[in-house]
From TrEMBL, chains A, B:
<keyword id="KW-0805">Transcription regulation</keyword>
<feature type="domain" description="HTH lacI-type">
    <location>
        <begin position="16"/>
        <end position="70"/>
    </location>
</feature>
<dbReference type="InterPro" id="IPR046335">
    <property type="entry name" value="LacI/GalR-like_sensor"/>
</dbReference>
<protein>
    <submittedName>
        <fullName>Transcriptional regulator, LacI family</fullName>
    </submittedName>
</protein>
<dbReference type="InterPro" id="IPR000843">
    <property type="entry name" value="HTH_LacI"/>
</dbReference>
<dbReference type="Pfam" id="PF13377">
    <property type="entry name" value="Peripla_BP_3"/>
</dbReference>
<keyword id="KW-0804">Transcription</keyword>
<keyword id="KW-0238">DNA-binding</keyword>
<dbReference type="InterPro" id="IPR028082">
    <property type="entry name" value="Peripla_BP_I"/>
</dbReference>
<dbReference type="Pfam" id="PF00356">
    <property type="entry name" value="LacI"/>
</dbReference>
<dbReference type="InterPro" id="IPR010982">
    <property type="entry name" value="Lambda_DNA-bd_dom_sf"/>
</dbReference>
Amino acid sequence: MSEHPNIQEAKRPERATADTVAKLAGVSRVAVSRAFNPHASLKKEKRDLILKIAKELGYTPDMAGRALVTRRSHLVGVIVPDVCSPWESQEIDALTTALQGEGFATLLFKTRTDQSMDERLLTYMKGFNLDSIIAFAENVSPDTLTHSLGRAVPIYVSYSEDGSLPNQPGSTSVFDRLIVDQKTGIDQAVALMQAYGCRNFAYLGGTTTSLANTERERAFKCIMKERGLPDPLVLQGDYTYETALASTLDLFKVGEGVDGIFSANDVGAFGVIDALRFQLGLRVPEDVKVVGFDDIAQSGWLSYNLTTVKIDLEDRVRALVRLILRRLKDPNAPAMTETLQTRLIVRGTVGS
Amino acid sequence: MSEHPNIQEAKRPERATADTVAKLAGVSRVAVSRAFNPHASLKKEKRDLILKIAKELGYTPDMAGRALVTRRSHLVGVIVPDVCSPWESQEIDALTTALQGEGFATLLFKTRTDQSMDERLLTYMKGFNLDSIIAFAENVSPDTLTHSLGRAVPIYVSYSEDGSLPNQPGSTSVFDRLIVDQKTGIDQAVALMQAYGCRNFAYLGGTTTSLANTERERAFKCIMKERGLPDPLVLQGDYTYETALASTLDLFKVGEGVDGIFSANDVGAFGVIDALRFQLGLRVPEDVKVVGFDDIAQSGWLSYNLTTVKIDLEDRVRALVRLILRRLKDPNAPAMTETLQTRLIVRGTVGS
DNA sequence: TTGTAGGCGTTATCAG
DNA sequence: CTGATAACGCCTACAA
C-alpha cells in the first residue's frame, strides 16, 4: 500500500527494539541502552529524547536479552506446595508486592507436599535462571537447591537457632536464613491456656516432614515441661481443615479428650473448633480451649475469632526481601541471618 | 592447586553450557540443542549420550537464550489484585499446576483494585516477554493489554455472551474469551431461596468496577424479575469480609432488613453470616437465608456450611490452558471462546 | 559523553 | 542425520 512496497512493512508489527529507537533518535544502540540505565552517563537532553521516542514506540528493554549478559534475570522463584493455603497465599501476596517494588517478578512453582522435591522440577526451574529462590516447601534442603540451581541463591526459613537444618555435614554451600523464634509466642499461648485452667493438652501437628511443624512441636513440649505440665497428646495432622476435624473426632470418641488444643496452624485450629462445636457438642472456649498459629486473616472472622500465635507477615516479607537484595549485591558475602519474633494475639477461643 | 594453574579453574563453578556438553560428547553445539528438543531428528544413541552427559554436568537449556531466538519465553503472566483472596489463590494454584505440566511457568503481578491498570506495571511486564497473560484484574481492558504487551496474548474472562467487553469500538485486536454463564446457577439459587419463603432480597455486590460483579448483579435482577419478585436491595461491597459485615449491619440497623441475601462472592457471604449471627442475633437460615458465589474450599467448613453457586475450578483452569495453548500454536487464528457453566451447591444456609 | 566491537546461550537455516 | 553459520536483543569493555 505504501509508495515503495517494503517487505518489512508487510510483517505484522513486531515489538520495537533498541535499534529502532536508536535510528529514530539519531543515536547509537548503546545510547538507548544507557538511557534506560540510570547509572550510565548520558547527556540529559539526549536521554530525555530517547526515553520520549521509546515511549512513543512502546519500547521496553527485553529482560531476556539483558539477562543473557548481566546474568541477572530479575526473577525470583517461589516454591510452594499449596498456593491456596491461606497462610501461604498471604505470604506470596505480600512478597510479590515487595519484590515488584524492587523490580523483581515472582515466579511460582508448585511441588507436592507428600514427597521430596522432584528433581525434574529443579532442572526445569534452573532453566529460568532465577536470581533467588524462596522455598516455602520445607521438604527440600538448601543444599539440594544450591547444588542444582545455578546462580540462584536459596533462602531458608528455619525455626530454631541451633541449626536444625537438613544439610549434610561438610557442605560448603552458603545459604541465608530467616529464623523464626516461635518460643515467645508459644509460651504466651501456653501461659494463657494454663491460666484459664487447662490441664490436659493436645498438640495438633502439621505435615510431619515439615520443619516448621517439627520445631513447633519441640518448642511446645519444651515449654510444657518448663511450666511443669504433663506431656501433651500429639495428634497427626497435615495443616488441613479436614484432617484436623477428623483427628479431633478421633481424640474425643476413642480417647478421653482434652481441655486444651494447640494447633500447628490456624486452618487446623478451625477444623478443631468445628469438630468440637458441630460434631461433638462441646463449647469453645468453655469446654475446650483452642490456640492456632500464623494469625491469618480468617482468624479474625467472628465465627472462629481465634486466639493465635502471630508471625508478622510484613516483618517477615521485609526480612526476606532484605536477604535477597543483600545477597544479590554481594554474592560472596558470608551467610546472613534475619530473626523474627512471634507473639500471642488474644481473641475468643481461650477464656472461660 | 592444579598442576597447571589455569585461570578458568580459579573461577567458581559456572553453570554448564551447551558447548561444554558438546565438547565432552564429541558433538556439535547444535546436536545438544536437538537432544533437548524431542521433535528434532537425532540418532537415538547420540541423543542418549548427550542427555547422560548433560545430566552429569547438571546442564539445562537456558530459557533466556532460547527465548531470544524462538520468541517463546514459556512465561505466562497472571495479573491479580489480591493473591490472598481465597478464590483467586485457589485459581492461581490450579493454574500454576496445569501450566507447569505444559512447561510454562507462572509469573505473578499485582495491581491495585482501586485504580485502573498502572501503565508502569504494563511496561514492566512487557520486558519479560510473556507468552500469554491472564488478567483476573478486571479493571484492565484487553485492548490495553494487546496494545502494550508485545507478543503476549491476553485472555479475558467475561460473564455474559453479549459482549459486554470494555473495548473501544473499531478495535482490531483479537482476544480470546472465557465466558462464564452464571444465569443457571443464580436461577437455581433464587429458586431455592424463594421456595423456602424469601420475600425481600438483597444483593451484596463486589467491587463496583469489577465486570464479574456488574454481570452478576444484572443476572440476579433479571432472574428476580422473571420470577415475579420485587427488585432487590443493593448493598455496596468490595468482595471483602469486613465490608460485607459492615454493610449487613447497616442494612438491619438503618433499614428494615431482608430475609434473603445473595452475595457476589463467598467471602462476602461469610461476612454477612457473621454479622447476622454474632452482631444482630439473627439465625441463618431460619431468619435470613444466605447464598454465596464461587464455592471456595472454606464454604464447606462447618461454621459457615454455605449454600453457593459453584464455578468449577478444574473446568475453568482447563479451559484457560486450552485457550493459551491453542493461541500459541496459531497466533493468527480468529478469536476463540470457551464457555463455562455454573450450578448451585446446596448446603446449610438456605432452609427452614 | 559517545560510538564500535564482541559476546552472553540458544535455535533456525542451510548445506552436506 | 549432522554440522557450520548467523542471528535473537542486550550490555560491558574499550577506544575516541
